[in-house]
Structures are given as C-alpha cells and as structure tokens.
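Morning. Coffee machine broken again, so started the prediction first thing and wrote up yesterday's gels while waiting. Chain of 130 residues, entered below exactly as on the submission form.
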Amino acid sequence: AVVGRNGSGKSTFLKIAAGLIEPDGGERWVQPGTTIRYLPQEPDFSGFKTVADYVAAGLTPACDPDAGRRILDVLGLTGDEDPARLSGGEARRAAIARTLAPEPDVLLLDEPTNHLDLPAIEWLEGELKG
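Came back before lunch.
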C-alpha cells in the first residue's frame, strides 16, 4: 500500500511505476517479460462502444479472451453496457475487470474501492488475496 496525504504524489508514483509517465530524475527498471497493469482513479472509456470492447482492449494476444467477460459477469455487468451511461460504481467495476483480466505480474491500483459497494469491495479483496 502507498499511503499519504492528498496531493503528496501517490498517483504520480503509481503512474511512474506503471510506465505511463517518466520520472523527473532517476530511472524506472522492470524485469523483461514482467506484465504490469494500472487501475487509474478515473478510467478513460472514450472510443469504446461497449464495456466489453473496453475490457478486451486491455488484453494481449496471450490472454484468455473470455477472462474479461467472466470478471464482468461476477461484478454484475454484461459487457453490453454503453460506457458513457455507466454509474461511478459500474465504471469502476469495468475498469477493475480490464485491469485484472490479463492476470498481470504486478497490479497497481489507484484508490480501487472508490465508488464500489460492499459486495464489490469484498470480492476485490478476495481476488487480491487469492
């Protein structure tokens, strides 16, 4: 867990670790072949017609193509939803499905429980422990 006050750089640190932005100094090194997935605080659904399209875009050719649908189903989404019409909790669950489906080696979650109800939080905790 990365803990700190608002504005202290936690999200920036996670983005650097995920390789999304470059650090001001030093360097980031990742073991070759390591897969990293990052769950942002605010997922970007632009350009996707359905939640299933959004989740599938996070998969690599080596991934199980049905993994995203299975996670969406567990989280109460069909995949046919229009991302523009999702509630905060639905958007968060879709983003979690996209992040978890590829079964990454390193999982970086930026405030993963925002907008989630208790059953979804408990499911996520179980997945992370398993």
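The beta strands are 36-39, 106-109. Going to sketch it on the whiteboard this afternoon.
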